[in-house]
Amino acid sequence: TPYIPVGTTCYAWVHQDEHLINETLDTLKASPFNKMRMCVFPKAYKFNTNEPNYFPFEGSLKEGWDFTKFNPVFFQHLEQRILELGKLGIEADIILFHPYDRWGFANMNKAQDDCYLRYIVARLSAYRNVWWSLANEYDLMLSKDSDDWERFAKIVTENDPYNHLISIHNCLQFYDYHRPWITHCSVQRIDAYKTAENTDEWRKQWNKPIVIDECAYEGDIDQVWGNITGEEMTRRFWEGTVRGGYVGHGETYINSDEVLWWSKGGKLYGTSPERIAFLKRIMEDGPKNGLNRLDVSWDFPAAGILDEYYLFYFGFNQPRFREFQMKPGIQFKVEVIDTWNMTIEDLEGNFEGKFQIELPGRQYMAVRMSKI
């Protein structure tokens, strides 16, 4: 059946205490999200200074790790979290490596890396709701090179009998998504401002599904990637969607206990999730094979099926009216969608050929046309 990824990111949620983990699951239950980006290894970064309860290997940071001996309790705990996501209909996008490390897991040698990968793929590939992400921000892992990543991909794909989806996530430089083992492009924007607007270019460049896993986060921290508004997050979702891609959510609102959703989970405080849920319903009500970009307008993006279904998006523009030139002989039902206020206005009458519709002169409006 068709699957429309509407993802979010909680990198280190499985490394928190049980109360916070359960709070995260309760939040997800009421959210629109059906994919979760999450790390296997614990994370050491700003707002991430606590020690996890479990580690993947026997030993300790002080005494050293025995990378030949896996800690079953750690992996049982991880599997339980994956099962719980599965019950909620959420795909676990498993990040196998990342650079934000103070325990030495990012700098294991080749034999240790390979042993770890064979073990975790043998354990987790049995779960139906698993995706593989070789790395979060692979190009910041200076101890690995391109040969390592290609070797890792070979190990994962050869040891996963169920061919789960697999990709790799970037920071400053895109990976070569033409590589045959990559099923979809897991993209982080490399421009400080432009993000989902590049979906068209990326689709043409790589000819694979574009999953923008990091378009920046709704929040108010000091980092440029973590302080966009709910309006801007919602706009980026719509931009990516009508350009034929799939955009991911994240949230980084600062609070006194430093439990930020993007890393530890907990609660959501932003204004974009309910608007993302609204968009998700529109996507699910659209063409059964998804929304593909249509080159029918030079100034606004549109998606759908020629002569059958159109979804136009006006973004931060605010037109008071819009003229359309559709194929003669085909009548359309036309609806005006306020993507921020989450309303759909069904315009009276049927529309055909050349016609004009009135708009409210507000930002974040869309128009949907369905063949009668």
Quick one: how many beta strands?
Answer: 21
Poorly predicted regions are none
Rg is 22 Å
Largest sheet, strands/sense/barrel: 7 strands, antiparallel
Structural class: alpha/beta
What is the 3D form? Answer: elongated
Average pLDDT taken over every residue: 96
Query: How many separate helices?
Result: 8
SSE string: EHEEEHEHEHEEHEEHEEHHEEEEEEEEE
> Helical content, roughly?
25-40%
Oligomerization status of the protein chains:
single chain
End-to-end Cα distance, whole Å, is 26 Å
The fraction of residues in strands falls at: 15-25%
Folded structure, characterized:
The chain is built from eight helices and 21 strands. The chain is an alpha/beta fold and 372 residues long. Strands 13, 14, 15, 17, 18, 19 and 21 form a seven-stranded antiparallel sheet that branches. It has a five-stranded parallel sheet with strand order 1-2-5-6-7. The protein has a three-stranded parallel sheet with strand order 8-9-11. Helix 3 runs parallel beside helix 4 (146-159) and helix 6 (230-242) runs parallel beside helix 8 (272-284). The chain is elongated, with a radius of gyration of 22 Å. The two termini are 26 Å apart. The model has no long low-confidence stretch (mean pLDDT 96).
